[in-house]
Amino acid sequence: MEIRDALRALKTFYGYDGFRNGQAALIEALLKGKDVLGIMPTGAGKSVCYQIPALLLPGVTLVVSPLISLMKDQVDALNQSGIPATFINSSLSARETNERMRAVADGRYKLLYIAPERLESENFRMLVRRLQIPLIAVDEAHCVSQWGHDFRPSYMTIVRLLKEIHPRPVMAAFTATATDIVKDDIAARLRLEAPVRVTTGYARDNLTLNVVRNADKREYVARFIREHPGQAGIIYASTRREVENTHAFISGLGVEAGKYHAGLSEEERARTQDAFQRDDLQIVVATNAFGMGIDKSNVRFVIHNNMPKNLEAYYQEAGRAGRDGEPGECVLLFSPQDVVTQKFFIEQSEADEDRKKNDYRLLNDMVQYAHTGDCLQRTIVRYFGEEDGEPCGMCANCTDERELLDVTDEAKLVFACIAAMRQRFGVTLTAKVLRGANDAKVRDFGFDRSLYYGRMKGKPEKEVVQLIHALVADGYLRMTDSQYPVVQLTERVRQVMQDEERVYRRVEPVHPAAVRGGRTSSAGSRGSSAPVAKQELFDALRRLRKTIADAESLPPFVIFHDSTLREMCSIMPQTEQAMRAVKGIGEAKFAKYGRDFLELIRQYSH
Questions:
Q1: Torsion of CA 91, 94, 100, 104, to 10 degrees
Q2: By its UniProt entry, which Pfam families does this protein fall under (predicted)?
Q3: Which of 170, 199, 228 is the last residue of a domain?
Q4: Backbone phi, then psi, for 95, in 5-degree steps?
Q5: Half-sphere exposure of 390 toward its Cβ, with a 13 Å CA cutoff?
Q6: Which regions of the chain are under pLDDT 50?
Q7: What is the span of the domain harbouring residue 325?
Q8: Quick one: pLDDT at residue 532?
């Protein structure tokens, strides 16, 4: 088998003429029997990289996936595209499980999705011994790494299963985000043999990133929702209580919203997720338990009401916006209390001291992201080990038109104060000394007699703290990896102190609840993606899609993605041949739905 066979399958089953960045290299490696490790951002098409080899290789491919919702969405989409697939998980009865296992043994499926816990079942291992398994694909592979942001010990059963399959299948591991240490850990723990590694880049050109500090969060969320009417969005909160309060507030605005957290029954969580997938709910307010593997393509915004524990988690969650390639907006609402909450979670965890130290380091990186004045997209790309590249030109920092102030004198005072305190204390105490606070701890250490005591007396403590965090984010200072991080100087400080470099900072907004820069992203503009003149047709196509989806008990995006509907509006196909040329319409989907959509387009053409 060669790559041209894969291209033929791509057109036939998925309706696309060419592979996206990185897909061809991974597929070609798998078809040649090589293990692979693919790091591809959400929406980049990771699943195609193992689904097409599964189609072309003999036997059945096992796909290890952590969440029931992901399995169902992917299996629904595959079957709609004419690819025989199924899943076995805890949502099935014993009878249903046995029926599916018999069907798998009879060779009726090309892909079988399973949870890692299923690999511990003796009945399942007996089935595996009877199957021809050319490929095992591990989705959300960061879950196998103890250094990743969502370590799951059950993933270690994958390696034990390998010993029972002969000949050894090819291994494919995929995730959206992984630092270099996590990549190496994935390869080692899954026993990948000289894997072909492909990292397609972390930049998401269709996402607008924004950090809003110290806003009135409720006022901001209410304004944001009003400016994005009818758009699907996820609002993440760090605790169950915060989810409940935020959900009650949004529902009070008259907006259809669901809630999702571990304190709700499994049935209630499933209802919320299903309603969101089917476009019956506009917004879901959730803890991070919601969303991993969610295949809903038309999420237009993700708001983090609280700061997540690290940048990997943040980018995984924010990346659920714009999976279809259409514009999406990602907003982080930051407040200092978020740091306190995340530290509490770390301390309450059962992790060992090395893991906790790593978690504090990751938390510090997240705080720096919240305070940086640099391009937000570039900051994330740099975090994951890629070269800086050009600023994105889209994020809130790149488009920020607020006045740029020279704060070199204030920065020098901060550096000198930290040096005088022998680089042994944290941000808050440093700020108290600079403000001349009447504080017992300041007096106990004798800092009230320091040359720098009270040198920023006229500034609020919050403003001094923000300045110090900004200096950390911009590389002048660094934080130690501990529960109570100490702020220290970097080499870069020398250039400032010797007047070889100036320090600049944007003026903080007067009204922090306002959208930064006074702008709304293209994702919020009703006519941004389809021409305004064809918006009526686009809405009609969505209604037809929803009617079909409801009749077949499927999420609408499983029928066609929004991007496919928008291309229909752009091309306005009048013949079957023209309709088949629309991206995302494979042979099976055209046979099922193509003529209905074509007829509707013809009606709007006259």
A1: 110
A2: DEAD, Helicase_C, HRDC, RecQ_Zn_bind, RQC
A3: 199
A4: -65, -45
A5: 4
A6: 293, 510-530
A7: 207-383
A8: 53
What's the pLDDT at 534?
80
Degrees to nearest 5, angle at CA 265 with 260 and 266: 85
Q: Provide the token pair at 247.
A: 């959900």
Full DSSP string of 432-450: HHHHT---HHHHHTTGGGS
Alpha-helical segments (H) within 106-239 = 122-130, 157-162, 180-189, 217-227
**C-alpha span between 93 and 151 (Å, rounded):** 28
Q: What is the pTM of this model?
A: 0.78
Structure tokens given for 92: 């099935």
- What are the E-state strand segments in 188-266? 196-199, 207-213, 232-236, 257-260
Phi, psi of 390 (to 5 degrees): -85, 155
Output the CA–CA distances (angstroms, integers) from residue 45 to 177, 234, 346, 576, 583, in the order listed.
Answer: 14, 21, 33, 27, 14
Rounded to a whole number of angstroms, the CA Rg of the chain reads: 26
| CATH label of the domain that carries residue 478 | 1.10.10.10
Beta strands in 337-382 (DSSP E): none
- How remote is the C-alpha of 386 from its chain's centroid? 18
pLDDT score for 590: 94
Domain identity same for 109 and 249:
no
Of 323, 209, 228, 297, residue with least CA distance to 525 = 228
DSSP class of 455: T
The pair phi, psi for residue 415, each rounded to 5°, is -60, -45
| C-alpha distance from residue 158 to each of 34, 142, 581 (Å) | 18, 13, 40
Residue 559 makes CB contacts below 8 A (sequence gap 6+) with 80, 545, 548, 549, 552, 589, 593
Q: What one-character-per-residue DSSP string does 312-332 give?
A: HHHHHHHTTTTTTSS-EEEEE
State how far the Cα of 560 lies from the Cα of 547, in Å rounded to an integer: 13
E strand segments, 104-166: 111-114, 135-138
For residue 163, with 0-12 CB atoms within 10 Å meaning exposed, 13-18 middle and 19 or more buried, which class applies? Answer: exposed
Domain total in the chain: 4
* Cα 152–chain centre separation: 18
Q: What share of the chain is helix, strand, coil (3-state, %, to 5)?
A: 50, 10, 40
All residues at 6 or more sequence positions from 409 whose CB lies less than 8 Å from its CB, including other chains: none
DSSP string, 329-341: EEEEEE-HHHHHH
- The gap between the terminal CA atoms of the chain, to the nearest Å, is 47
- Residue 315, sorted as left (phi over 0), alpha (psi -120 to 50) or beta, turns out to be alpha
Instruction: Decide which of 169, 199, 229 is a domain's last residue.
Output: 199
pLDDT of 529 reads: 43
Do 322 and 557 touch, CB atoms closer than 8 A? no
Residues 6+ apart with CB under 8 A from 13: 55, 81, 82, 83, 586, 587, 588
Angle, helices 427-435 vs 461-473, to 10°: value is 130
